[in-house]
Amino acid sequence: MRLLHTSDWHLGRSFHRVNLLSAQAAFVDHLVETVRRERVDAVLVAGDVYDRAVPPLAAVELFDDALHRLAALDVPTIMISGNHDSARRLGVGAGLIRRAGIHLRTDPAACATPVVLADDDGEVAFYGLPYLEPALVKDALGVEKAGHAAVLGAAMDRVRADLASRPAGTRSVVLAHAFVTGGEPSDSERDITVGGVASVPAGVFDGVDYVALGHLHGCQTLAERVRYSGSPLAYSFSETHHRKSMWLVDLGPGGEVSAERIDCPVPRPLARVRGRLEDLLADPALECHEQAWVEATLTDPVRPREPMARLAARFPHVLTLVFDPERPPEDTSLSYGRRLRDRTDQQILEGFVAHVRGGEGPDDRERALLSRALDAVRAEEARTEAPR
């Protein structure tokens, strides 16, 4: 049976104020074409369909379009809710939608009720484990202490019990939305830490043939049978070096797994550049980034004038600007008090300016301003301390 594993669409999300709806629509086009071209038997969407619980109308319309097009191909689709989705909203109409071959799994209590599909080699049971918020689902799953490992372990115990009741040779696939130990996170996933612990061991999924994971945005293989598809688009500059893709998985008659990455369309490459402003504007090696979405980190000791406008002249799609000025090494052998000993107030102020500028002290105009400020402070102190 051939499966297409994807996740973390985050429909409705933007990228540093850039609307990504057209890029997300292009991904849906690519998904539908891949299903048709590769003769996929089932599509797996492992959570975070939307970016927030109440998505914008345009995102809902795009999701509706995706469902209609997948249903028109007569290819079953199994989806679970993620931590960004509202499980109850996503699950509305699940019974009706199921008639079109779209199976929404959003209820934790139903995690051991599989979608059963068959091919020439027999049946495959698909178990959808929506994102399990420990505090909300521990009672339904019979867990005393709230924690990701505990609730996911309880859900998988139910899955294994159901699988054991099925005919010998039934193959199994689990969809889950979680942070599994060994996965590499990025800056764009929402923190799901509970009690200081966010991750669960991969061993919690033992006993099934394939685990289609969602939540982490980088495509990665934790084990031959346990994989993240990652998000189809980049949602932070920490994903600059990600290769965005889906997994095309072939599940053999005995549960054997082989997987191939299918690249997703890239609306615009990402680039992180770092250095002094004049160097970034002149360096010929950065020509390849001129049409990318750019995050620029400036290391100038003194903040340049109009840096964003000047960067945009070369990099028209620059989106973020970070300042990290170069600083000379400090003598840490002396205490702060020792370093200030025998220095005047004026020298202390000038030294502070030099410190925050990476060693470049104030010019004559700025020295005069500092002097006048000190004089004003002293005058105010003298006024308040004078006898009345």
UniProtKB/TrEMBL annotation:
Q: Which GO terms describe its molecular function?
A: exonuclease activity
Tell me, what does this protein do in biology?
SbcCD cleaves DNA hairpin structures. These structures can inhibit DNA replication and are intermediates in certain DNA recombination reactions. The complex acts as a 3'->5' double strand exonuclease that can open hairpins. It also has a 5' single-strand endonuclease activity.
Q: Name one Pfam family in it.
A: SbcD_C
Annotated ranges, domain Calcineurin-like phosphoesterase: 1-218
Q: Which organism is it from?
A: Streptomyces macrosporus
Q: Does the keyword Nuclease apply?
A: yes
**Top-level division of the source organism's lineage:** Bacteria
Q: Which UniProt keywords apply?
A: DNA recombination, DNA replication, Endonuclease, Exonuclease, Hydrolase, Nuclease
Alphabetized PANTHER family for the sequence:
COMPONENT OF ATP-DEPENDENT DSDNA EXONUCLEASE, NUCLEASE SBCCD SUBUNIT D
Protein name in UniProt: Nuclease SbcCD subunit D
Q: How does it assemble?
A: Heterodimer of SbcC and SbcD.
Family from the record: Belongs to the SbcD family.
Q: Which residues form the Nuclease SbcCD subunit D C-terminal domain?
A: 267-355
